[in-house]
Every structure is written in C-alpha cells, then in structure tokens.
Amino acid sequence: MTEKQLKKICAAIKPLDKKAMTMARERLDNLTKPPGSLGRLEETARRLCGIRKSLSPAIKKKIILTFAADHGVAAEGVSTVPREVTRQMVVNFMAGGAGVNVLGRHVGAEVRVIDVGVAAELELEGLYSRKIKAGTDNIMTGPAMSRDEALSAISVGMEMAAEAISDGADILGTGDMGIANTTPSAALFSALLGLDPAEVTGRGTGIDDKTLEHKIAVVANALKVNKTRLTSALDVLAALGGLEIAAICGMIIEAARQRIPVVVDGFISSAGALAAMKMNPLILDYCFFSHMSAEQGHKLFFAAIDRQPLLHLDLRLGEGTGAALAMNIIEAGVKILTEMATFSEAGVSC
Amino acid sequence: MTEKQLKKICAAIKPLDKKAMTMARERLDNLTKPPGSLGRLEETARRLCGIRKSLSPAIKKKIILTFAADHGVAAEGVSTVPREVTRQMVVNFMAGGAGVNVLGRHVGAEVRVIDVGVAAELELEGLYSRKIKAGTDNIMTGPAMSRDEALSAISVGMEMAAEAISDGADILGTGDMGIANTTPSAALFSALLGLDPAEVTGRGTGIDDKTLEHKIAVVANALKVNKTRLTSALDVLAALGGLEIAAICGMIIEAARQRIPVVVDGFISSAGALAAMKMNPLILDYCFFSHMSAEQGHKLFFAAIDRQPLLHLDLRLGEGTGAALAMNIIEAGVKILTEMATFSEAGVSC
Asked: Does the pLDDT value for residue B349 go beyond 90?
C-alpha cells in the first residue's frame, strides 16, 4: 500500500448515520424505564445503530485481533521484563493460557494472534505470520521503521480486520503484545497530542522510580532524535511507533471504513487509535474505548479526545483483555435496545 | 423472627478466610502477567476466595432477587411516575420484558421477583408472594413500618436468599422495584451516615429542580417526624425504610452468614446493604458493589464505607440491572484465577 492509497481509504470513511441514531433514541425512550436511566448502555446502543445503520445491530460474532511485535527500544532497559517474553507470550496465547484467552472465552470472542514483528522465529499452528521485520529499530537512535514498513504494518492490520469481517465478525477488539511497548506509545501520545513526556510516560509492567525517570528521558530523547520526522501522523507512527501499534491503527481504519464497531483495548491500542484518528477524525465515532488503564497518561488521551472509556478496573495488561470485557457491556447495550419491552407493549404508564 | 434472633444471626457472621486470600494472591502473582496488572479483577477474585474459603470459587449459578414494594411517601409527589407503575413493572418482570430480565439473560442469571409489599393484588405465575403489607406508611407523618413489620420483611429477604442458595446459587444479586423508593433510601443514608438530606437526595426517575427541592424537604421532614425512633439500625430501617429495602437487608445478612457473595445493585440496594452493615460491619466484605449510580448521594455512601463500585456507567434504573452486569465482571475475575496459565506452566520468564 502506498501513502496515497492509505489517504484514499481514510477519505472513504463516512460519518455515523444520524437517522438511525435518532430512531434509536426514540425507541430507547419508549422502553419500560425512565428515559436515559441505563446511562452509557443507552449511549452505546445508540452509537452502534449509527455505525451499523440499523435499529437492530445484533452482535453475533466477536473477534479480537492481538498483534505482537518487538521493540528496539527494549535495549534501553525501559521494562522489567526481558524481550524474550514477547515470543513466549505468543506461545502462551496459542496454548490458550493468557489473560486474553480466558477473557475472550468468557465473553464468547475468538482471539486471533498475529506476528507482525516478533524478534524470533515463530511457527505455531493458528498463528498468523505477517512479520514485517524482527522488531522495530531503537527510537533512541533513529526512526522505529521506514515509512514503507509502517505502511506494510498498517496494511497487515487492515487485511486482518477485513478477513475477520468477511468471516462474520460484527464487532472487533484490538489487542497488543510487545515487551517495552508502553515506551513507543508514550512517545506517540507525546508527539501527537503535544504533551510532555513526563506526563504520558508510566510504569508499564511495574518499573521503579529510577527506571521511570530513565524511561521518561528515553521518550524525550526519542522525540528529539526523530524531531525532523514528526510531521504527518504516518511519519510520526513510522518514527516512534511499533509494528503492532501500526497494525492496530490499520485495523481500526478498516473497521471504520466497513462500518464495524471496534473496541479499543488499553494504553497501547489507544496510541494506534490516536494515529488513525489523526488520519481521519471521523474514526473516533467507530471506536468504543474499553477501559481507563492504570498506566499514567491514558487519562490525558481521553481528555484530549473528550471521551470516557466504559470500564475503570485499573487494568494494565493489554493483549485485548479490556476489549474483551467491554464487548460484553456493548452487547448488553444492544440487547437493551432490541429485547426490552416498550411502555405500550408492557402496559406500563409512562 | 424476633430482634433477638436477628442479632444472633448477625453475630454468626464470620470474617473472610485470610489463608485462602493469601494463597489466592500467591497464585495471581504466578500467572502469566505482571503482578497486579488485572487490577480489580484480581482484587475481586481474591476476595471471593476469602468468602468461599476456596481457591477455585466457581460461579455456576447466579440468582438475582428483585424485591418489589410500594411507598406511602409516593403520595407527597416525590416522583414523576405514578405509584401504579410498581405493580405494572412486576407484571413486566414476569413477562420478561424489563431491563433486569434482559441483562439477567445476558449474563446467565435467573431473576426471581418477590412481592414484599406492592399496593395491589398480584397473582402471577412464578411471582413469589410474600407481601407484608400493601406498601409502607407515609414517612412524612410517621414511621414507614412497625418494628415487627420490618423484622418480617428482613425475614422474607433471608428466606429468599436461603432458598436461592439451597437451589445452588453461588452468587446472589440484589434488586428493587418501588416507585418513590429513592426517597426512603435518601432518608436512610441521611440517618445512618449523618449526612444532610440535601446531599443524599437526588433526581430519581428524573424530577425537575422544584420537585427536587420539595423531595429534600420531604426527606428532612421524615427525619424530623421520626427523630425519636432513629436509634438502632433496625429502628431506623423500620421508621424510614421500605419493605423491599428491609428485604434486601435481610437477603444480604443471610448471604454473608452462608458465605455467599452478594452483588449489591444501586442506590436503593446500597441503603439496604448499609442497614445490614450497621448490624454487623463484617457484612461489608461479603458485598460486591456493582456500580456508581447516577443518583446523587451514592458517591457519599462509597466514601463513607471506603469502597469503590465495579462499574461507572451512569445507571439509575435499579431492578438488579447493575448487579447483573457486575456479576459478569466478578465471574471474569474468577476465571482469571482458575483458568490462566502460570509462568512455569507456560514457560514464560518472570
């Protein structure tokens, strides 16, 4: 995919359907409850109608796409966890033992795992092998990726979303795996929102004060080293991002283009979503943000886009775990709209 | 049941099992994720282990008990909704068309509806008829109930909880239906927490500023008229409460006594939980609070008990709708504990 083709795809994204949303509001207000008393479930159902152009946007098939990749910046000691764990966790995903597997099963969502840049040979049954390269380069010393590599990673995300939709998914969830990936995410938030690295850099898997200070300096340096490259959203993503973050960006773009709701997982997925929204602000309306991460900086992202996530459970695992939980809440909202009795059906005085 | 018997039952409630909670923490820290990274899911799983004295507290059967009753204070015009709607909504519950039915089905919970004081004849298949009297008396002019009536309503709650547990429920959810019942709930919060009526009185089904002012005056007057009766938690409950609120209080006591977790729905259920906790503070640890209601005053309750609810979705419907949604989150926490792979099982470096 060329940059020109990406721009064309982004330009094809349409606004929500206002008529469906108005009709959804009318139906919601006729259900046997005080108007608005199911709060965010109602808001969710209404927006889903606007996305799907339908008053009965059933959720029949949920698919979570978990993109895995490594990060050159891991060499800077920004995480407590060795880089090797990215590969090990992909093996764990395929065996069904990770958090996202458990929560995916809990909510009836299929989890598809995509190697978009793990720094190790990986051949596992069921794993989607779409490696662009064996991890990004170190953003402390230069760009994470070339622009072509970023475009390729975005393409992988788009293709995986398109395949999931063609397999029947009517809602998608994002997920990530990549040791050290809160560092490029913090760099992306800083660059794309104009925020100080100290505000958006957090403790990731649980680093101490000294390592946090170092991590902030790494993010600040990455921004400095890559300064001249920080122009368009695509260039920022290439310079500072991760291969999995670029894939998540692509997945979200394709979901919005095909009018499929996408549940954005946590801090890392939000960085991908932010890049997508910078390419076309209409994408925001196709995103449901699953949870407020315990990772510092996530709240600044929500303040910047003027949205609130659905859950506040102090999660900071990623993988798609928050997306899985939030899918269940969104499904609840849809069922309220489609299964509750109206005042006249139930013979209740309104 | 006499007051003496109630005290004996409350005194039989034991603390959580610390050993099971320590072992749960150890297991959670050995799962393939950074320690604590699943936040409140982990906290929930750990507490459930302490309640059930088990490291595998499976949730196999969920039952929501929705208690319905009318309120004499409805005559004061504190709600936008006619009193008749309590009865109509019970009919709606039994037909499966209400919010709690939809969300109960969504999470696989059975909903049992109990008439503990609806001001109308109600004979419906499947409805539990346990009417104490046809609605409370008006708290503006005297006590809502006699102490014996309150004890009877608490008994109904206990019996319904005991029956659900004997039918196999390993988690219970509370629910309420009663037009005007945010008024007695506000009065209970004010009396039991020593808060000003203006702080804890909210808009219920959606009253305007003028009606809110009137409602605050009604609550203040109820507290004044019943002043000499506001002594023990039982006396406060009898003077200001509702029959369904007393039943919820009883249900929670019985669940705690039998070491069964109970998911407390919203504002009204929290008033019942507060009365129970005043009878024995250990009860707090058996309660999972489902959501922060949009009803003003709920946040003051959580501040007073130093707990946070699981969900923040601006719900204000009651019925057990929030309890249903939260059951799903609690179940997710249990599955994390019991289904995720450990570092050694998965061969992941910790």
From this structure: no
The CATH class for the domain spanning A6-57+336-346 reads: mainly alpha
User: In terms of C-beta distances under 8 Å and separation of at least 24 residues, what long-range contacts does B308-314 make, across chains too?
Assistant: B310/A313, B310/B40, B310/B44, B311/A311, B311/A312, B312/A311, B312/A312, B313/A38, B313/A39, B313/A40, B313/A41, B313/A310, B313/A329, B314/A39, B314/A40
Would you call A41 and B98 a contact, using CB atoms and an 8 Å cutoff? no
Measured in angstroms, the CA of A135 and the nearest CA of chain B are apart by: 19
* Reported ipTM: 0.97
B interface test, pick of A348, A349, A350 with most B CB neighbours within 10 Å: A348
**Cβ-defined contact of B348 to A89 (cutoff 8 Å):** yes
Q: Which residue of A has its CA nearest to B82?
A: A349
Instruction: Write the pLDDT tens digit of every residue in A37-93.
Output: 999 999 999 999 999 999 999 999 999 999 999 999 999 999 999 999 999 999 999
The residue of A32, A207, A335 whose CB has the most chain B CBs within 10 angstroms, and thus the best one to mutate to test that interface, is: A32
Q: Is the full-model pTM beyond 0.95?
A: yes
Give CA–CA dist B315/A251, Å, rounded: 32
**From the CA of A99, how many Å to the nearest CA of chain B?**
6
Could B313 and A39 be called an inter-chain contact, meaning their C-beta atoms sit closer than 8 Å? yes
Q: What is the domain partition of chain A in residue ranges? A: 6-57+336-346, 62-328
User: Cβ of B94: how many Cβ atoms within 10 Å?
Assistant: 17
- Which residue among B34, B82, B294 places its CB closest to the CB of A39? B294
Both ends of chain A: CA-CA distance in Å? 55
| Residue-wise pLDDT tens digits, A315-343 | 999 999 999 999 999 999 999 999 999 99
Asked about B123 being catalytic, the answer comes back as: no
For residue B71, give both structure tokens: 């309120």
Rounded CA-CA distance A253/A259 in Å is 10
Note whether B34 contacts A336, CB cutoff 8 Å. Answer: no
Q: Which residues of A are catalytic?
A: 319
Assign domain B62-328 to a CATH class: alpha beta
